[in-house]
């Protein structure tokens, strides 16, 4: 009888654990004292597609997203987890207008020469030759942002579907990467980052499977993160986050086998699971006080599939390549760590 009771107890434990999606060694029923040490996805349960994030001079993080909230939403957080809506980058009077009736998509926030610089896409669905990329500036991460106009449109630069900008500095020069399923391209910008450098020529960096490019430099490698598949079909979405790497900013970027991203080869980073679908368009990587890397992206929640929710996961590294635990969104995980203790509710 004693042995039978032990077996029954073990079976109940195994059944309990099998029903929990773990992350960082935690299951979904933490004790009350552990609640302040964990977070749950989505970290913001409203539609915030295509997130971009920056740590501002005031020590807070600011996050911007495609305008499912009209005029480009801005959120603030001390710790990457607890977010407060602070307003919008534009108003109906100040919003960009170079694409009539266009939406403001996939912003990219940066701090350049003492100014907050927000690159953005402007497009209508299907307007792949009239869409384009513009830029706005502000003295504060909360805005208001002043539109500085378009950098280029698809028909002007000769790249169909010119959306999804990403800015990077390298050896004193400034570059913009962009593209959506018609090739990923790069071009040099002027010193202030507000226009294309006169005489600069575009160059293709990756193939036609990708959009939402972001490049991260680490230990002598450049890592090109991007999204493949369909972004916006609710629970039918196939969006997936992928990555390749290169020793050079402009490539060639390859997978672990050395196959080129120009030929649409890559490594899987984040894919769907039982709770989240359409996992893609990641933000910049940001570090906490412990040196841990974190990344935002969006996904549809199976429980509430209206809109793309904000997801946060830790980026870990193994043998020179990034990975996320289980290659899919966590349900619950240990919070980012910040020395100022702002990560405790």
TrEMBL record:
Pfam families: Glyco_hydro_43 (PF04616)
UniProt key word rRNA processing: no
InterPro entries hit by this protein: GH43_arabinanases, Glyco_hydro_43, Glyco_hydro_43_endo_a_Ara-ase, Glyco_hydro_beta-prop_sf
Catalytic residues of the enzyme: 50 (proton acceptor), 211 (proton donor)
SUPFAM superfamilies in UniProt: Arabinanase/levansucrase/invertase
One GO BP annotation of this record: arabinan catabolic process
Gene3D superfamilies: Glycosyl hydrolase domain, family 43 (2.115.10.20)
UniProt site positions, description: Important for catalytic activity, responsible for pKa modulation of the active site Glu and correct orientation of both the proton donor and substrate: 164
Feature type site, description Important for substrate recognition: 281
Span of the signal peptide: 1-23
Domain of life of the source: Bacteria
UniProtKB keywords: Glycosidase, Hydrolase, Signal
Residue ranges of the TM segments: none
PROSITE patterns xref list: PROKAR_LIPOPROTEIN
Enzyme Commission code: 3.2.1.99
GO MF, one example: arabinan endo-1,5-alpha-L-arabinosidase activity
Pathway it works in: Glycan metabolism; L-arabinan degradation
Family membership: Belongs to the glycosyl hydrolase 43 family.
Identification of the protein by name: Intracellular endo-alpha-(1->5)-L-arabinanase
Organism: Petrimonas mucosa
Gene coding for it: abnB
